[in-house]
Fold these 4 entries.
Entry 1:
Amino acid sequence: MNLYFDLASPSFSPLWIGPGQTAPITPDELREPAVDPSITRMRISHDAIPDWPVVIQYPDNCTANITPFHITLGEVLYLIHSSLHTQITHQDWARLSMSEETAIARAYTRRCKSVPSTAKEQASQGVRRIDYLRGKHIFRGLIRTHDEDGFYHWKLITS
């Protein structure tokens, strides 16, 4: 089964999909370490929005019942999703070129219309970081990149 996660969806709903079957990711699976070996700090970025990385960090001395904390699959997916659903500021919009404005406005319109039952509500909340991905909002995975600052760096891949 493969992970299917539409990051533009207003709800957090990652799924396992396979030939003729679909199943939600279970709470136990979401509590599993995101990577092996487990880590306590990571930075996730996307080429389209490098100024808005997702940073996850536990203190080095953070423990629970002698078992070290680790970053879970659920935390990674949830924090990517919630970060991408952050509304942009007027300053963010002002930094765009005219062609970027047009492309992002089109992505915003498509996103709002994609779920007719919430289209009006989504539209009222304005442009979000997800719209900067310009329609490439299906999670395809993370690729480890150059580490620095004591963080494990990962590149978010979408299509």
Entry 2:
Amino acid sequence: MATPLACALLPRAPLRPAPAVQLAARRRHLRAVAGGAGAARPVLRTCKNCKQQYDPAANHPLACRYHTAHFGGETKRKFESVYAGGTMDTPDSGKVFQYWHCCGSEDPFDVGCTAAPHCSYDD
């Protein structure tokens, strides 16, 4: 038989705060970590060439990759006559050939043929 004194000596689980109190404390902690002690967040700018947002402090000479001309199509006959010295009897000469007009790449998702630092609309 357990005595009242023995029950008093058993370890008890610590009391936990209510979920709403825990959530509020977690939000305060995340705000403090994200904001830092008075540290300002970097102002992001949008690049004119690649249309991506960037941090001006982290900009470097090869940060931006873009194409200097558009992606479009011409018939294979015209493309080869201009760029490869093609003749008028090229096979599939009427087929439309799509490519980047600056570098000739046929991949529409090519990262870009020109590397430069990002250039903001604000510059």
Entry 3:
Amino acid sequence: GLQAEETKPVEPGAGLCPPHTTSCAILAVIDAIALTRGDCFFTADFTPANLTAWGFQDCQHDTTNDEFGSMLGRLLLPTLPHDYTENSTFMWFPLMPPEAMEKNLTKPGIADKYSFERPGRASGPYIVESYAAVNSIVRDHATFHTPYVPRVQQIFENRASGYVVLLLLGWTLSSNCVRC
């Protein structure tokens, strides 16, 4: 079921401001600190040799990211790429009211980097059952385009040719697939 509660008031020293029941669940029932201290993957085995260099780097605390070191937005964006924009405060600060985040981000002068609009609902999957329909969708780049082209181009900017990007996305050359 759905439970809706008002969040705690945002004030200096408040930290996260989830609803009362959520904060009790996090702090009392889960006891995250004890679980983390006793978990071998976060103690002796937390090394690049065990996690791979990429996995180890991905787990590191990065205070220069858009959420000031938090990890929740980094989990939401790849998991729900159609539900959030890359600058959404609903993604980067999901436990904070957008009005409070706008006020807090205005003080250091970085509010213009973020969007405070509520995310729209992502459309659901469509089932295509015939070869002809699939063929027409794949060839119609104006109507059916991949949302991943700009993100992949960002990754490969100045590092690979546009053909690599197109190959990774399974697209042929067209007007909306620009070379990196």
Entry 4:
Amino acid sequence: MIPCHWDGQQYPASSGRRALERDQKGFSGHLTGLKFIFGPCAVPALDLVDQRSVTRVRSPSGRTLYQVLGSSGKLYTCYSSCHFCTCPAFGFSVLQKSESLLCKHILAVYLSQAMGACQELAVSEEQLTNILLAEEEDEG
């Protein structure tokens, strides 16, 4: 069991939407609140948390990024420190159109952080650099 940082209760590591649905008394209102605040990306983000799709990648220097395995099977890199995701939905809906505050991948990162449900991956500085360079090549 892992304590949830935003309500103090204990939940299994894979808690996401299933935990929200199980706890009818306490969390049904939270699920409604998440849907109200974050719109249509709330439930898909919780599904990503349930599937343990969020990995925190950390180097010895403490630099951190997140990789999220999207529902399409593609791996997206998210930076919670600057609120950015490499997915097309973030680029279009958030950056170009300003229709959303975030994409489902960034929300999944934030929810995983709050629930303590991130996978952990320690990498060397060189490996982290290679991850960042691979993202740059994919975009260019």
